[in-house]
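Try it yourself: sequence plus glycyl-adenosine-5'-phosphate, in.
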Amino acid sequence: MAQQNEAFKKLVSHCKEYGFIYQSSEIYDGLAAVYDYAPYGVLLKNNLKQYWWKSMVQLHENIVGIDASILMHPKTWKASGHVDAFNDPLIDNKDSKKRYRVDHLIEGYCEKIEAKINKDVAKAKKKFGEEFDEAQFRATNGRILDRQKRIDDIMARLAKVMSDGDMEGMAAMIEELEIKDPETGSANWTEPRQFNLMFSTQLGSVAGGDGKLYLRPETAQGIFVNFSNVQKTTRQKVPFGIAQIGKAFRNEIVARQFIFRMREFEQMEMQFFVKPGTEMEWYEKWKETRLNWHKALGHPAEKLRFHDHANLAHYANAAVDIEFQFPFGFRELEGIHSRTDFDLTEHQALSGKKLQYFDPELNENYVPYVVETSIGCDRMFLATMSHALMDETVPDADGKDSTRTVLKLPAPLAPIKCAVLPLLKNKEALTSKARAIFNDLKFAFDCQYDEKDAIGRRYRRQDAIGTPFCVTVDFDTLEDNTVTLRDRDTLKQERIPVDKVEQIVRERVDMRNLFA
Ligand code: GAP
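Structure, out:
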């Protein structure tokens, strides 16, 4: 765990130091859980969005995109259930004045039991060496089984009180489990209460409740309210999908773990409208499709897993998370939800407008069912960065071992695709040739020209921002119009003609390589 936290700390400081993410309004000491994307960060984030958009919209004839507004008619949020049910249970500690989510406190209690289990496993592993069968040990050791049962019982009880909105039940659990403030050890708690996560704002000159608007807490509702508009204007037939990328806002009580849980974040969502009764088939299909999308980025299978929801949201009849192994453990990266006809039916009832589909094969109207895929762009960014960032021992220019920090991003996602480097800064013939190559390549993809410091240091700088290719202009270039092309991962240097650089790099950074 300590090692994982070190890795996470390194990732956070790398993001700042190398221009990927800054704290918002840092000169005023920042705003909690709000972040700005820095010059390389915005390029990587845009590439992730493009990868999602192309695979969801461009490659599916039956999925179209929209870009709906953040502000919507306030009835939207009444119909969707967010006004009444988009709550987190919070509790305050009277001594420390700190505020916590009740479910996080109880989960934290279970994590401590889990840590004890892991400690026992580690001890046994050390004792029995190579012959140790971990799965068998976990399945048969009495102490482990008792502890696991305790975790399962607590989590089942938590799921029940959460889905019932049972505040007394939550208070009883906090008391019975003798849960203390993780920072101060105080058990002096207030009663738990529900806290709505939507940010509200005011419309124009209208004062009072009438002008109250919300910043959207999910992009999905912009899709639901446009269902009929999109279906009619694009003449799509069920099954079809509507996709969208956009900002969402949640007043998270405990905003933590860097960009994992933010108050302003970006979602990439797709609502797939299907014939009622076929939703589970589509749910399974989208689970598989989305998992493959993650694997195509080179994330190993053991870093990804499905986690079925025990506690279903008010709109869902089935839901699963794709969890990713972040440096702080497995956490939700994407949600796939079978949302039934809940949203369209509720909007229909509150607006008085029909949100139905005429099925020409059945010769009847129905409200379609919806399977949703919903991924946080920022979480995807964090997952991608955490998997890519590593320290590696490689030979330096003299053939000796040295350590480099490298960001092994998939080449199509890298912020800078190619850096152009003259071997020496003070040789005009080299710098002008390198500049000419850069000025040509910059029309094809994001490139960088760098002449400062020794060539080895420049390579390391490009490694740290994930640049997959470096083109070096040396004295041979002036003779034979060839350059060296250095590969970030293999460190192999190829000699290639200048007029082939664009084509070779273009082929290697093409997003098609991910789709293949
Ligand atoms: N429309 C369904 C929906 O919004 P969700 O599970 O609440 O479902 C979907 O959110 C995804 O949005 C999550 O899997 C996560 O990647 C991202 N997300 C949710 N809350 C977030 C937050 N506070 N900060 C960053 N990403 C968040």
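One thing you can check immediately is this: The first helix runs from residue 2 to 17.
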